[in-house]
Design a protein that fits this description.
Largest sheet: 7 strands, mixed
CATH topology of the largest domain: Aspartate Aminotransferase, domain 2
Order of helices and strands: HHHHHEHHEHEHEHEEEHHEEHEEH
CATH superfamily of the largest domain: Type I PLP-dependent aspartate aminotransferase-like (Major domain)
Number of strands: 11
CATH architecture of the largest domain: 3-Layer(aba) Sandwich
Bound molecules: pyridoxal-5'-phosphate
Number of helices: 14
Structural class: alpha/beta
CATH class of the largest domain: Alpha Beta
């Protein structure tokens, strides 16, 4: 054995203790470190001929790179929809690497069973029927991808076509109907060969981002001969608006379509009696996307896909080989997901759900939403800013209170905010207006952070 490797193995305790010091030092400073960074491109260095050992690599990393890592896991990073990592989820994540399971087999490790256990917790947290089958994937994009892949298989079967064997060319017609579909739905349509243009956009209600149910029904009525996929949105990224899931679900009694619900972060509305009405009807869904690295606050990358049509999934994803076993007999995850070998991705989620329970998540969701509404009310009564939509849950969508703010002026303002170092946002466009989003989904954020944030906004106006 290479002596560096042998030596590192002997010193594993010291190595991991030093890593722990680096991690703890960062986490203890998280509240004060600037959330966003602009990092210049670095020049690439050559692969060492002779290694420098794990401690050498750690020293080098700390000296040259650690200060340039951004603090997106901290409490005042409001870009995109970014969660952090709860203490318990970090503990779980460290063990994922130490145990290094290939979580695809069924009985040669407890890992796949713990994945099913974690999904059971999740179904109870979100109020989903126990009949949903689920698995962990890398993010909501992959969850949407898996969901649309099985929806496509279902559409084929309605017409006597086995898409998994015959390919898309066997299908005469495939449309995906939605109003404010997330960009990852459109990306998935491209990856699945269904094409970005397969998306049919139904109008939204005035002053909303939610689908106009009458227009949806009209479209379904006009297209009864074909079998459609409807993608409902349970939490749009700009204003956290929800399609009427119960209303759409009722339409399934009259029209034959697959209902996929993208509830990547909005699904967590179900954890609180203040917001759970928004998720009413979710159990009509044939498939559901829930992200874990957003509001569940586990480290990247993790999300869950769920479906009521488990049997369709191995038709698409089965991986038949003599050494992998019979996919019809084996419940192994690699017959159900795009991956073959898979990380034990469920463990950080299991840790955090065990550690904080239903009440823990209700508290995070309610605190994030009350922080968002606090920021919203301060912006609304300010002279410098203008709210573009009511704050429905955890996202504040606003702009500069100027005549026609340009996207360049928003970009320049957000660069000043980033360099100021107190807070961080990402830009958007809301109904044609260049805008700013503040998304609250980090477990550490408090009202004190909102006060600091508002001051930073005013100071940089
Ligand atoms: C974030 C998000 C996605 C994509 O999620 P990733 O985890 O980044 O792949 C999809 N849909 C919605 C509604 C989202 O908020």
């Amino acid at each position: 054995m290479n002596y560096l490797l042998e030596n590192d193995h002997k010193n594993i305790n010291t190595i991991l203790s030093q890593v722990q010091s680096v991690a703890v030092e960062y986490i203890e400073k998280q509240r004060d470190l600037p959330p966003g960074k602009f990092v210049k491109d670095i020049s690439l260095s050559d692969l060492p001929q002779l290694g420098i050992s794990a401690n050498g690599a750690l020293d080098f990393f700390v000296k040259h790179y650690a200060n340039h890592i951004n603090n997106s896991a901290g409490p005042r990073y409001f870009g995109f929809v970014t969660g952090g990592s709860t203490p318990a989820s970090i503990a779980g994540d460290w063990l994922v690497s130490a145990f290094d399971q290939n979580a695809c087999g069924s009985n040669d490790s407890i890992a796949p069973q713990l994945e099913r256990q974690t999904l059971h917790f999740l179904k109870q947290l979100i109020g989903l029927d126990e009949s949903y089958f689920g698995s962990f994937v890398t993010g909501a994009t992959m969850s949407n991808f898996v969901s649309l892949a099985i929806a496509r298989q279902w559409v084929g079967e309605q017409q006597g076509i086995d898409v998994s064997n015959e390919g898309l060319q066997a299908l005469p017609y495939l449309k995906v109907v939605s109003s404010t579909a997330h960009s990852s739905i459109i990306k998935s349509l491209s990856m699945l060969g269904m094409g970005r243009n397969a998306l049919v956009k139904i109008n939204i209600q005035p002053d909303r981002e939610a689908i106009d149910l009458k227009e949806l029904e009209e479209y379904l009525k006009q297209n009864q001969a074909s079998t459609l996929i409807v993608v409902a949105n349970a939490g749009t990224v700009n204003t956290v608006d929800f399609d009427d899931l119960e209303g759409i679900g009722q339409l399934k009694q009259k029209y034959n379509f697959w209902l996929h619900v993208d509830a990547a972060f909005g699904g967590f509305a179900a954890t609180s009696p203040k917001f759970d009405h928004l998720m009413k009807g979710i159990n009509h869904a044939d498939s559901i996307t829930i992200d874990a690295h957003k509001w569940l606050n586990v480290p990247y990358d993790a999300a869950m896909q769920l479906t009521k049509h488990k049997s369709l999934q191995p038709k698409v994803f089965q991986n038949s080989a003599a050494y992998l076993g019979d996919p019809t007999e084996s419940p192994d995850f690699f017959h159900y997901t795009p991956e073959n070998s898979r990380r034990f991705r469920a463990l950080p989620s299991w840790f955090t759900l065990m550690a904080y329970g239903k009440q823990g998540y209700q508290e995070i969701v309610e605190r994030n939403c009350s922080c968002a509404s606090f920021l919203g009310s301060m912006l609304e009564s300010s002279d410098e800013f203008k709210l573009l939509s009511p704050v429905r849950m955890n996202v504040v969508c606003f702009t500069l209170n100027k005549e026609n703010p340009s996207s360049a002026s928003i970009a320049a303002f957000l660069a000043r905010i980033r360099d100021d170092g107190r807070t961080f946002f990402t830009p958007t466009n809301y109904k044609g207006t260049p805008a700013i989003r503040a998304a609250f989904s980090n477990w550490q954020t408090t009202e004190a952070d909102v006060a600091i944030t508002f001051q930073a906004l005013k100071d940089n106006y």
